Amino acid sequence: MNSMVRRQQGFTLLEVMIALMVFALISMMAWQIIHGAMENAAFTDKQTANLSQLQLTYSRLERDFTQMVPRPVQGDDRAFHLNGEALAFTTQDNLAAFGRPAEPDILRVTWLVNKNTLWREFSPALDLAANTQGTRVPVLEHVKGVQWRFFQEGWRPTWDSKANIPQGVELTLTMENDEQWRWVFVASEGWPQEIAATSGEETTASTDQQNADNGTAAPADNKAQAESGAAENKTASPQGGTQ
């Protein structure tokens, strides 16, 4: 009786190793794609958070500077005082006073950098003792330093006037990664009159040019024409009577 030999079918060792290698390569490529997407998402979230903090800081500074008032306080006879990198002034932006008539709407504000953080210190009571510290709130982290400049008939790095406040304030913010942000704020006093006058003259000149292009006479020309016509009528009237 002849025995039938059955051959068992299966993968060879080489085929198994090749399959494992292909699977490992595919897994590695998939992991790199997923890891890269996760890193990009984390970086985007971080940048968005940083930009949001910068926008909030800018809004907070803008509200303080645009509502400054030249009002010194007890213990500091300067209405606007720069001490190193710390800037102190009086502003009308007291959010806690909204809806509370008995609450004062002005407060003393100090912007300063301490431990790589930009702080806003404020005190609703202006005439406190000199050693009294107000409420300090962190506004922006990872700050390396700040630099101030002030506008009053030109930019200047210091402010010497005790009774007045500048017309504009420039802040250069340096972050820990050496990234710089430069912000310019217009104070409550506004820009100089020379700039406003120049702007008004340019507007008048533009209006006159537009009237000339449209064939419309300026008010002064209309008045001159009216006076000339009245003089001609007055001269011609007696002649008509003699005839």
What do you see in this structure?
It is a single chain. The chain contains three helices and ten strands, in the order H-E-E-E-E-E-E-E-E-E-E-H-H. With 243 residues, it is α+β, with helices and mostly antiparallel strands. It has a domain at 72-186. A hairpin with a 2-residue loop joins strand 2 and strand 3 (86-91). The model is unreliable at 191-200 and 216-243 (pLDDT under 50).
| H/E topology pattern | HEEEEEEEEEEHH
Give the class from helix and strand content and strand pairing.
Answer: alpha+beta
Portion of residues within helices:
40-55%
* Strand fraction: 15-25%
The tally of beta strands, per DSSP, is: 10
Key traits:
243 residues, 6-stranded antiparallel sheet, 41% helix, 24% strand, disordered C terminus, 10 strands, alpha+beta, 3 helices
Task: Outline the secondary-structure elements.
Elements: H1 13-66, E1 68-69, E2 80-83, E3 86-91, E4 107-113, E5 117-123, E6 135-141, E7 143-151, E8 155-156, E9 168-175, E10 180-186, H2 193-214, H3 219-242
Antiparallel strand pairs: 1-3, 2-3, 3-4, 4-5, 5-6, 7-8, 7-9, 9-10
